[in-house]
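TICKET: design request
STATUS: open
ATTACHED STRUCTURE:
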């Protein structure tokens, strides 16, 4: 099977600066849901930007569905889309609808088809009622969802997200998590860099843990969150339900099957009763 994303690099980072990451060798298979975790400055954004050709430093080979990526255009043509952390880096249209249609239009779609794609994407992100609103009149959470709609209108097969829930209220977080679940079920490959560790069990089946300028761990979400020493080195904590459960059950603190969500804690307690 051809990987959705393959990165082989001696170094990744900005030109004329020390590399953010060294000796990167990873593959993401089609349909996977991957979370990239690490402290501030660990290289999460660098990894995502490198995946779409925005950054290149050192010897690096990046492929998206087998196609070599050297520029952002290469990445888009191969089926990748990147949601930036800052909405102001990604909003171009005067209105929400115009912005969502920008990408499809640049893919070569005629205006009616581009607008149709934009309307579908806006509805999926819960923004169809704001289609005519100027982008500068949106709240921060609405801006984040408008950016996501603009990416989804281009129908990527590989969706990379940089802090997709940052700055959102709980309802906004739920909307994003649910939308990503639907996209995953439709076959979209997801790679999300995030500090929201409590949401990771809902977002991802696999975790890539960054720290000390390299990949510290790469495995199932449960297996990586069981590595307490590596989490400390990466300046990342386990989800709160796991921490509370370990505090209440110190005799089983090393159990790799520690509950990671409230739902798992409830099921575990029910099984013991």
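STATUS: resolved
RESOLUTION: sequence designed for all positions
ATTACHED SEQUENCE:
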């Amino acid at each position: 099977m051809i990987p959705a994303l393959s990165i082989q690099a001696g170094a990744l980072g900005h030109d004329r600066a020390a590399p953010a990451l060294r000796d990167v060798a990873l593959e993401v298979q089609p349909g996977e849901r991957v979370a990239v975790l690490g402290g501030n400055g660990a290289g999460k954004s660098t990894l995502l930007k490198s995946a779409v050709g925005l950054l290149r430093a050192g010897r690096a080979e990046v492929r998206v569905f087998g196609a070599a990526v050297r520029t952002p255009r290469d990445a888009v043509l191969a089926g990748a889309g990147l949601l930036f952390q800052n909405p102001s880096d990604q909003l171009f249209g005067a209105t929400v609808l115009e912005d969502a249609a920008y990408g499809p239009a640049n893919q070569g779609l005629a205006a009616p088809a581009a607008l149709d794609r934009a309307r579908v994407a806006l509805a999926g992100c819960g923004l169809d009622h704001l289609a005519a609103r100027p982008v500068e009149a949106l709240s921060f959470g609405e801006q984040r969802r408008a950016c996501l709609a603009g990416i989804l209108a281009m129908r990527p097969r590989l969706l990379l997200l940089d802090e997709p829930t940052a700055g959102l209220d709980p309802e906004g977080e739920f909307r994003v998590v649910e939308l990503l679940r639907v996209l995953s079920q439709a076959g979209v490959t997801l790679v999300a860099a995030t500090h929201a560790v409590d949401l990771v069990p809902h977002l991802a089946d696999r975790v890539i843990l960054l720290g000390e300028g390299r990949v510290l761990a790469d495995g199932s979400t449960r297996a990586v969150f069981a590595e307490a020493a590596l989490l400390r080195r990466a300046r990342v904590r386990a989800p709160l339900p796991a921490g509370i459960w370990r505090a209440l059950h110190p005799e089983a603190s090393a159990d790799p099957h520690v509950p990671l969500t409230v739902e798992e804690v409830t099921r575990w307690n029910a099984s013991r009763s």
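CLOSING REMARK: The chain has a mean pLDDT of 92. The longest helix spans residues 170-185.
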